[in-house]
Each structure stands twice: as structure tokens, then as C-alpha cells.
Design brief:
Blueprint lengths: L1 H14 L9 H32 L4 H31 L4 H4 L7 H22 L1 H9 L3 H34 L6 H15 L5 H21 L3 H18 L2 H5 L9 H21 L2
Helix pairs in contact: 2-3, 3-7, 5-6, 5-10, 5-12, 7-8, 7-10, 8-9, 9-12
């Protein structure tokens, strides 16, 4: 019994960062509104820079992917800045309190998450989408690939970090003020994350829910978001570089179909990731 209580106390040290600031409901409303405004501003700016981007990055796979990375990074970067400004203004606590219980960003932990989930996620997609990987190898260009990895790591990193900071940081901490059950907290966090991805199809909704649940569990275990932020970056970067066309995926029509074999393997990979975190990664 003593061991169980100690575990809950360790988890709550991250959630209790909410006590470092102010938590009136209207502060949350205004912060979320600021994020929405940030996305609107980002999209407006994009309409002005799109012609420039098209001239810098002409048609072709390399130009299309570089342009897509920069567009995503720009929009989410502006939303991230808006969120940080609003959070510090309205909640009056440091942004580091959303990242973890440490005052400094743990980049080593970020890279661990990136590499570990990158390997697991690659193996899953290699099994389920081997033909796509073969096509990738046939058209492989080392110089282009290196450039895309560098640019993608930065700009997809901005997008994935924003989502982790908002969902597994801000929202999970905010919900913990009202939801005392860790189980309900984790499930509700996964549900919010999946709703954000519902437009991509039912399969994406289900995967995002399970992805969100396991990542929330990891955050509460580690009491920080760096590991899952790195893993999230690897997830999106791996897909966009090797297995899907990111630009086409964004504009893809909604689908009710679910690849159950792929989903099952992804769940298995998430279980393995979580076990490794609990057993070996502090």
C-alpha cells in the first residue's frame, strides 16, 4: 500500500505544477483563444509567403516536401509563440512548468525518444507497408534525404513539440485540477488528441487515441514531456520522409476504413516503448 501511494505522489509532482500559477477558467479560455488566433495569423501569413515558397522550392518531390515542412513549421511555430505568450501572461507561471519538473529542457531525453520510437515505428511500417519502402529505396537520393532530415527535424519538431506542450502539458495539467483519477485523466487526454486527428479518418482517430493514451502514461511516469516530444517528432518525420506524401495526406478525404493489422502492430510497438521507459529510461 505504501508503494502505491508513493507512485501516485511521484506522478502528481508533474501535475501539481499547476499550483505554481493561476488557474481560473477564463485564463484557460483566453489561452486557447490565443492559440486559435495564432493559427489564423499563421495561415494569413502563409497566403503571402506561398508564392515566394513556390519560387524557392519548385515542383518536384524535394521542393514539395521542403515547402510542406516549412509551411507546417511556420504555422505551428506562430501558434506556439502565441501559446507561450498567452500562457505566461494569463497563468503567470513559467513555460518550463509544462515541460516538466526540471527547469532545463532535457535534450538527451528528447533524442532517446526520437531514436527509440523511430526504430520501433519504422519496423511496424516496414512490415505493413513494405512495398512503399521498396519504392522509397528505388528512388532514394542521399543528398536530398539528408537535407530533408535536417529541415524536417526542425520544422516537424516544432509542430510535434507544440502538440505535446499543449496536449500532454497544458491540457493534462489543467484537467488534473478537476479529474483526480489518473485512468480517466489519461483516457480523456488520449480522446482529445484523437479528436484533433479525426479529420484524417477513423484509422487515424483510433491510432491517435491509443498513441495519446500511451504517451500520457509515459509523461506521467517521467514527469516531463521531452521523451514523447522526441518520439512524436520521429513518428511524423518517419511517415513524411518514407511512407506517405505529407502534402497529399493533409488533403486526403475522410475514410472509415481501418487497417487492423497495422493498428495492432502499432499498439504492440507502443506497449514495448512504454515497458522500456518504465524499466530502463529515467
Amino acid at each position: 500500500m505504501q508503494k502505491t501511494n508513493q507512485g501516485r505522489e511521484e506522478i502528481n509532482t508533474y501535475l501539481e505544477n499547476t499550483k505554481k500559477g493561476k488557474n481560473n477558467w477564463w485564463r484557460y479560455a483566453l489561452t486557447i483563444l490565443s492559440v486559435i488566433v495564432g493559427f489564423i495569423v499563421g495561415n494569413r501569413i502563409l497566403t503571402f509567403i506561398k508564392p515566394t515558397l513556390k519560387s524557392i522550392f519548385p515542383d518536384g518531390n524535394l521542393g514539395k516536401e521542403l515547402g510542406t515542412f516549412i509551411i507546417i513549421g511556420t504555422i505551428f511555430g506562430i501558434a506556439l509563440i502565441a501559446f507561450i505568450i498567452a500562457f505566461k501572461k494569463f497563468h503567470q507561471r513559467p513555460i518550463s512548468s509544462l515541460i516538466g519538473i526540471q527547469k532545463k529542457f532535457n535534450f538527451v531525453l528528447y533524442i532517446k525518444g526520437f531514436v527509440l520510437w523511430g526504430i520501433l515505428f519504422f519496423l511496424v511500417n516496414l512490415i505493413t507497408d513494405y512495398s512503399i519502402f521498396v519504392n522509397f529505396i528505388v528512388n532514394f537520393n542521399l543528398n536530398n534525404f539528408i537535407l530533408l532530415i535536417i529541415v524536417g527535424f526542425v520544422f516537424i519538431g516544432i509542430q510535434s513539440f507544440f502538440e505535446e506542450l499543449l496536449i500532454r502539458g497544458y491540457i493534462i495539467q489543467g484537467f488534473s485540477l478537476k479529474i483526480k483519477s489518473i485512468l480517466i485523466l489519461v483516457i480523456s487526454n488520449g480522446l482529445i488528441f484523437s479528436i484533433m486527428h479525426f479529420g484524417y479518418g477513423l484509422g487515424s482517430f483510433l491510432y491517435s487515441f491509443i498513441f495519446g493514451v500511451f504517451f500520457a502514461i509515459i509523461v506521467l511516469k517521467q514527469k516531463q514531456i521531452e521523451f514523447v516530444a522526441g518520439a512524436h517528432n520521429a513518428n511524423n518525420l518517419m511517415l513524411s520522409l518514407v511512407f506517405i506524401d505529407l502534402g497529399d495526406a493533409i488533403n486526403k478525404e475522410f475514410s472509415w476504413s481501418v487497417n487492423w493489422a497495422s493498428l495492432s502492430l502499432e499498439i504492440l510497438a507502443l506497449i514495448i516503448l512504454t515497458v522500456i521507459v518504465y524499466r530502463f529510461i529515467k
